Amino acid sequence: MSVEKHSPSFDENLKTSGADRDVVVESELVSPSAEERRLVRKLDWRIMPIACIMYLFAYLDRSNLGNARLQGLPQDTLHGDPTGVLFDWVNSVFFISYIICQVPATVLSKLCPPRIWLGCATVGWGICSVLMASAFNFSGLVAARLGLGVFEAGFGPGIPLYMSFFYTREELGMRMAYWFGFAAVAGAFGGLIAFGVQHIHAAVADWKLLFIIEGLPTVVIGLLSMMILPNRPEETPMFDEKERELALERMNRGIKADVGRTVNKAHIYAAFKDWRIYAAGVLYFGANCALASISAFLPTIITTFGYTNAKAQLLTVPPYAVAAVYLCLNSYVSDRLQSRGLFVASASAVAGIGYVLLLAVPSNNHVRYFATFCITSGTYTTIGVIIAWFAHNLGSETKKATGIPMYMAIGQCGSLLGSHIYPKTDGPRYIKGFAVTCALQFVAALAALVLTISYRLDNKLRDSKYGKAERDAPVDTSEWADKAPMFRYVP
Q1: pLDDT of 17 over the 60 cut
Q2: How far, in Å, CA of 80 to CA of 74, rounded?
Q3: Which range in 80-84, 203-207, 212-216 is most confidently predicted, on average pLDDT?
Q4: Mean of pLDDT over the chain
Q5: CA-based, 20 to 30 A from 313: which of 169, 185, 217, 479?
Q6: Helix, strand, coil proportions of the chain in percent (round to 5)?
Q7: Nearest CA-CA partner of 435 in 487, 381, 358
Q8: pLDDT tens digit sequence for 320-354
Q9: From residue 453, how far is each of 139, 151, 272, 460 by CA, in Å?
Q10: Is the separation of the CB atoms in 43 and 166 below 8 Å?
Q11: Is the dihedral of CA 255, 259, 265, 271 positive or negative?
């Protein structure tokens, strides 16, 4: 393990980049070989199922408060919470520790074996989720939710970085869609679990049983992930020498990856000075404001349509199912076109239209229910595509390890806001909450357009100044990260 400190040399970098280009010109138009397709299938079978299941339970454990609210949690632990303020704080306190810990946790993760880091994080938040069932007052719930945020901070931003070790930019979008799509599956699955728990009639309170049922499997999955997930391509024993050589070549397509467990201090500073990361944070802020509020309050919002609590739990399932399909379709096309910004902008606009419908049509429940499909589909797609977008566009591993949690931390402040703009006293219309979230979706769409235009202009400028870059040629990003002359952004 080491920490590197660089003194940049722009001319050397340009020469190295040019040399790298000459080596790989011939491979530009060659389709993936049979060996490479076999390797990708092997990676998919080894990584994707466990990573997706981990995220399924991460999201279940994070968002099950909305279901627990309808099962008596406020009455048992918050003295009824007539204003809804205490519940809002229990929901949002998770994001405080999650925001604070994201950047240091992801940078530190580069110095640890990935499977141990991710597995321990999973075990940690699973234990915190189970402990929520033992809480008997406001303080106990807050303590458990704070712990949940600390451990999930080591997982959420770490997975896009981890995936970038194994998948190329043409493959990453769909893998991120499958992975993040399990957040939507969790929304649907969570409603079904809550519906089932409500009909068990056990001696334990329904909301306590919900936390136990969703928390205990997480601990088991965390232990399994330590055995199943591979470490970095140069370290893992799952490859033979030929596969390792191919995996390392794939890892270096379009960039020059870090070797070993190193942290480049210069790239940490570069991330903090990059305006695009803050623009992505604005985009992510809007999407997360919608995501946090829809996760925690969708069952409650559906009850305002006149349905019983049990039926409201079931009616949360279809919007999440449609959102997962919509996310995968957008990610597939954006992978093929190697374009992200326009898809992010259009998805944010779809979510915004959903909120417009909730505000403008107060009496037609069919239209209002359709609006929840727009909101979930637009929000999940925005977040899924932007994760794939910035998994490549930051250039180096260290800048990714800093920049990804940076924009996510900024975005999670939107989750804090989303947890506080739907007080019970504003029901059943929730005009303030819908209006604020609606405006943020259109701001997010604008931020996505600004980003994609800036990336396109930057690529065009570099093409004219340094010549067109060879597709997938290794580019030495060790000094300049994404500012390397031959590096090209996915717009």
Answers
A1: no
A2: 5
A3: 212-216
A4: 87
A5: 217
A6: 75, 0, 25
A7: 358
A8: 889 989 999 999 999 999 999 999 999 999 999 99
A9: 47, 36, 21, 11
A10: yes
A11: positive
Query: Which helix or strand (DSSP H or E) is residue 124 part of?
Result: helix 114-132
Q: Which amino acid is at 173?
A: G
Sorted by sequence, the CB contacts under 8 Å of residue 108 that are 6+ apart come out as none
Residue 30: pLDDT band with limits 50, 70, 90: very low
pTM above 0.70, yes or no: yes
Which amino acid would we find at residue 28? Answer: E
d(CA 208, CA 197): 10
Q: Are 383 and 180 in contact (CB under 8 A)?
A: yes
Distance of alpha carbon 280 from alpha carbon 69, whole angstroms: 32
Local confidence band at 198 (pLDDT 50, 70, 90 cut-offs)? confident
pLDDT of residue 80: 87
| pLDDT (tens digit per residue) in 462-474 | 999 999 988 878 8
Q: How far apart are CA 384 and CA 395, in angstroms?
A: 19
Confirm if 312 and 303 have CB atoms less than 8 A apart. Answer: yes
Of 426, 402, 327, the C-alpha closest to 158 is: 402
What are the start-end ranges of the H helices in 275-340?
Answer: 275-303, 309-315, 317-337
Sign for the CA dihedral angle at 359, 360, 366, 371 comes to: negative
Paired tokens of 477: 């990003």
Nearest to 109 by CA among 456, 370, 397, 394: 397
Q: Compute, in degrees rounded to 10, the torsion defined by CA atoms 113, 380, 334, 389.
A: -40
Burial class (CB in 10 A: 0-12, 13-18, 19+), 326: buried
